[in-house]
Amino acid sequence: MMSPQYxxxxxxxxxxxxxxxxxxxxxxxxxxxxxxxxxxPQVSNAVDQNTLTLDEWxxxxxxxxxxxxxxxxxxxxxxxxxEYSHFQTIAVWTSCDPMISGDSETDILISLLCYAIxxxxxxxxxxxxxxxxxxxxxxxxxxxxxxxxxxxKNASPDKSFAHPDESYLDDLNLDDDDxxxxxxxxxxxxxxxxxxxxxxxxxxxxxxxxIKRTPLSPFRSxxxxxxxxxxxxxxxxxxxxLLSPPPYQSSGRNVSARKxxxxxxxxxxxxxxxxxxxxxxxxxxxxxxxxxxxxxxxEEKEAFNKAARMQLESDSIRAKEEYxxxxxxxxxHLKHAKQSSQxxxxxxxxxxxxxxxxxxxxxxxxxxxxxxxxxxxxKEKVESMGDVNKVLEAEEKAHSEALSKCIxxxxxxxxxxxxxxxxxxxxxxxxxxxxxxxxxEDEIRKLREASMNVNGLNDELQRGFLRHQEENxxxxxxxxxxxxxxxxxxxxxxxxxxxxxxxxxxxxRLRNENSRLKEFxxxxxxxxxxxxxxxxxxxxxxxxxxxxxxxxxxxxxxxTQRDLAASLQREQKLENQVRELESSVEELEAKLQDExxxxxxxxxxxxxxxxxxxxELTEQAKAEKERLTSEWEEKLSTQKSKSAQEIxxxxxxxxxxxxxxxxxxxxLRAQSIESLQKMEKDFExxxxxxxxxxxxxxxxxxxxxxxxxxxxxxHGKQLIQKTKTEAERKIQELQDELEEVxxxxxxxxxxxxxxxxxxxxxxxxxxxxxxxxxAQVEETSRECDDYQMKLKKVEREKATIQSENDRMRRxxxxxxxxxxxxxxELQRNFNDLLEENRALKKKTTSSPxxxxxxxxxxxPFTHGQTSVxxxxxxxxxxxxxEKIDEILDEKRELVMKxxxxxxxxxMASKRVFELQLEIKKIENLNTSLKLQLAQQxxxxxxxxxxxxTGKRSTSKRTPSFVSKASKMWKGSESSSKSSPDSDxxxxxxxxxATITSGKKNKSDIEGxxxxxxxxxxxxxxxxxxxxxxxxxxxxxNMSFGxxxxxxxxxxxxxxxxxxx
Length: 1060
Known about the structure:
Layout (H helix, E strand, L loop, with lengths): L3 H16 L2 H17 L2 H6 L7 H6 L1 H15 L10 H8 L11 H12 L7 H9 L3 H20 L21 H24 L23 H10 L23 H159 L1 H73 L2 H8 L1 H171 L1 H174 L14 E3 L2 E3 L1 H69 L22 H18 L23 H21 L7 H8 L1 E3 L3 E3 L4 H8 L1
Antiparallel strand pairs: 1-2, 3-4
Helix pairs in contact: 1-9, 2-9, 5-6, 6-7, 7-9, 12-15, 12-16, 13-15, 13-19, 13-20, 14-15, 15-16, 15-17, 16-17, 17-21
């Protein structure tokens, strides 16, 4: 049953709809249908709300597709993407008959609307709730469209009735008795069925009477369609019989014409019966109309009762509100009184405190004068500070001038760069000269040692010469004695000197020659002895130096081996750390992937919760609405029951009064006609007066009931409006919350994207660093392999040097033995010379002429079977010196290789230290990333928390290895300056090895310059393998200090040149 409010609204809508023109009616229909379609998400997403015309919608293919999808959802049909005739398929789905409703787009949409709220639709309640959420005018127009569609559908004739096809009767032979008997049997069976059906089937009462109707299910009267359906329910014999062809035709059977006539009579009887049924239906409709009128009257009475009850309720509410207002006013007066009493107490307390403050202020007034005087002094100081500001401005000006001077000086430095290049060239030249000086000093030292050796030999030769002189003197004395004996005996000498003075001169000459030769031989022996002594001293010194150098190289090699072992251990640790870091990076990537998945899941959960909250709110609104409707319906039912009881009581009272009046009338009739006439007149007057009074009362009641009804309608409208506004407000709040949530979610997504980009960049940087670290580890491994190869080479060279040292020692030992033999040979040669001198003296007596020089340096000294010449001695000495030079060169090269290996080992340790620093920084970053992940895990529950970013920005990355190395070695240089090492060749605390030497005179340098260059060029020609000399290394990587000596730094460039 419809509520009076909704019935009134529908009545108003129908009146407004009737007063509209056809054009405005069609526009309002289209707009109502389009707004209903916009309630579907498929259409609302594809449609611009500003274009609310059906022509524009039907032209747009996307909108048509959206309407097709929403129709498929309503009809629960699958969507065919290849379908193009959308409205025709919708008409087929909704079974829209163009003969009844039409084939336009609006008619198809109206049929879709009726299908959506019909009982055959599975989601009917949802679509009804969507329609109820629309505007009131749209709802009214939609209800009007639904009513018109149902009226058209009910008013359409039943097309299921078809004229029987009796053409097959022409083919039958009506003269056959068998066919006649068959038809008779069929007729008897049909009559029995008709009688049974008529007896079994009672008269069907329409079910629409007494059923409560919702606003979306308007009242339907039994229409001709129901008549047709009722006629269809009747057995086949009651309607026009549809003659069907026989299952098979037989040529031997015919039907008589009598049966046809009988069938026609039966059809006429059935048509009469149908007319009677129609008349019965019309009577039933009339009964329904009367029942409907009674229901409307009852509804009016219920509305009147409800208005009275609402009036009483409103009066009671008004009185209650007045009483509550009075109580609130009294409570406010009480509160004001309490507040005033409290304020008075506070004012008393404030007065007491103010008196104390006045006492304090009297005391502080004296201090105020003191502070004013201090303030005056401070003002004077501030004024004096103005001069300080001027001084500060002057200082700033001076600072700016100093900056400009610094810039000028920098420009001058840029202009002096070529002079710097020249200075470096001069430094290189000075280093070359210093190297040459060092070599010349070594040469001088060697020459001094050789001279010492030769001095020792000379001393031995001098001692031998003195012995020979003594022997010569003895021989002379013996000769003198013999000569005196001869002079005394035979006097041959006198005769000879007298007879042959030339022989005497020759003898004197020979004696002088002999004495000269003796002196030369003595000198030669002394020189040889000195040389041998110097050579021995040189050999001893070389042996000691080689021993020291060998021990030093051994110690350095052991230290390098230890450093290499430590570096290998560090390298293994670094590789393990790199593997751990790679695993941690992979874990972090996995965690980041998990975080992304968790974020997506959180997003889905948020969307789900949002939809759930939407559904809950809509369900709450529906439940609230249903609750309100149920409450109002209960109230209406109670009110109806009360009104029905009152009506019954009133009717019983009225009936009782009527009975009493009838009895009195009878009594009055029996008494007299006159009195009856009088009474009739009086009664008529009274009844007229009562009628007038009743009419007036009825008019007043009607007016009051109408006013109350209007008030109730307005109150209901207000309640509905309030519920609507509250629902809209809640929806708006939910939309605002949704927008906030979406905004926060977008913000979170943006933050997450930024975080992901930062994390990707960090991971990319970490991967690059890992690749760099791996490359550096590979480089260090290659360098370690090179160092191991070099170490093996150095060990081999060490073995060769040791073998060479042993060989040289053996050679020196052999040389000492040969020198002793040579000394003996020299003595023998001296004796041979004496004998030869004597032989010559004898020969001079026989051959006075002598053409050759008595002493020839090229002639060998012979003594017996052996002969040693001066050229062989000089050759041996030159070979010995050359061998010593080669050994010294090899020693220098070994020292340089050792220093280069030590520097390379230190560079490797330095690189290892840098790698450790990088690994520590990567570990710190790793820990920071882990902390960020932990914070994200903590804030995962609170979706609206901001995303944490990295602690450091990408600009503040780890510095390059070069800047780190420069800072490290600057610190190491400062430490080395504060605590220098005792070793002059290698500094073990920094990768710089310095060699300092004192100032040298230019005359000393120039004296040995030419000789040193000559010797070095000769050595290069002799040993082509040893191409890298100390001078070239000094030219490449050494710097010269003019005041405090030369400082040679073995840097990485020097190590690279040695490696090459």
